Amino acid sequence: MHRLAPWPVGGRTAVDLVRAVAAALDGTGPALAPHDAAAPPAGLPRTVPTGVAAVVATSGSTGAPRGVLLDAHALTASAEATHDRLGGPGRWVLALPAQHVAGLQVLVRSVLAGVEPVLADPRDVASVALGVREGGARYAALVPTQLHRALAAAEDRLPAELVPLADLDAILVGGAAAPPALLERGRALGLHLVTTYGSTETSGGCVYDGVPLAGVEVALDDGVVRLAGPTLARGYTEPTGRDAGGGFAEIDGRRWFRTADLGRWDDLGRLEILGRRDDVLVVGGHNVAPAAVEHVLAGLPEIDEACVVGVPDERWGQVPVALVVRGAAAPDLERARAAVVRTLGSAAAPRRLVEVAALPRRGPSKVDRAAAARLARGDEED
Fold first, then answer.
1. What is the extent of the structural domain holding 290?
2. Domain count, the chain
């Protein structure tokens, strides 16, 4: 067994962050339980199995967060496969909280590259000071909200505000589905954007632009995504009840993680994520995938972000309602419905638009759909 140390990440220097992660990876220091507050999360074990380098909490998007046991070899395999896909090690911008797996992975990649990361303000990544390029590649990892904020701040004041981001060799965009219109805006401005898909249980993103990283396997079971490979976590700190194994299972001698996400292979053989299985709405007998509706809505210039949830309805069982963040103009329900009907059919068209200043979130990027549903219903507590 190996000691587990609570690890508050706020206010640390790049040197301190990298040094602690390096010691956790090679076993000379304790395994790390990163967190963002002075008080560590409750219920942490004092020790973890030998080989575990970090215990990272899930986003808790479908319930209470769970501590995921991440082995050093899984974190390292993910970082090495990322560098292999991008074209080699480089200097990373840390703009994500290190208590989440995407931020922790930036530190792991920095350790393997032997280069300190650049610390950036998570809310102002467009103005990060990259410093003088001294050879080698430069990368960053962002969530869609950060990319949206950077583009919104920069588009009116080009070119200065986008110079740092445009000088990066690649920007990983993950943590949540990025609206296609957002990616198009960024690429039109010269940003090299790479979409990622994965989870804490897979040591972070393991499918880039729909293509699995080296060693990663993807399978679909009735449309549900399964993942295997060297990046899989060992398991959870406190498995209990019928979900004791989580989504981990051995199938035909191969260890897999069964996600709660629905996917399909597109015409180019790339994985396309359609949303979470438990988010699907049944509207008058028709299945409606909220993620598909959200992509259509976020493609309208008057809507920057959208979250579609189901609200009970006596006639239809439930109907889709969209929380939207205003874009270039006031959102218009009839225009939004018409766009959805053209693409997905009438059952998927939102019955109402609820304008909000920001979507409720859990973690750095995941939308809190339970809170969104309360807002859509107009519950008093929200």
1. 280-377
2. 2
Nearest to 173 by CA among 111, 230, 125: 125
User: What does each C-alpha distance from 338 to 85, 261, 289, 345, 350 come to in angstroms?
Assistant: 40, 27, 17, 9, 10
294 and 245 both lie in a single domain: no
Q: Exposed/middle/buried for 306, CB within 10 Å: 0-12, 13-18, 19+?
A: buried
Q: Write down the pTM of the prediction.
A: 0.86
Q: Residue 232's domain is classified under what CATH number?
A: 3.40.50.12780
**Lowest-confidence pick of 84-88, 152-156, 162-166:** 152-156
Q: Do 227 and 204 form a contact (C-beta atoms < 8 A)?
A: no
Question: In this structure, is residue 26 part of a structural domain?
Answer: no
Q: Considering only CA atoms, which of 175, 120, 180 is closest in space to residue 300?
A: 180
What kind and span of H or E run contains 22?
Answer: helix 14-26
Q: Say how far apart CA 115 and CA 124 lie, in whole Å.
A: 22
**Cβ contact 30:48 at 8 Å:** no
Residue-wise pLDDT tens digits, 290-318: 989 998 999 999 998 999 999 999 889 99
* Co-location of 219 and 313 in the same domain: no
Q: Are residues 215 and 339 in the same domain?
A: no
Cα 181–chain centre separation = 18
For strand 361-362 and strand 366-367, is the pairing parallel, antiparallel, or unpaired? antiparallel
Q: Are 129 and 94 in contact (CB under 8 A)?
A: no
Structure tokens at 341: 């009907």
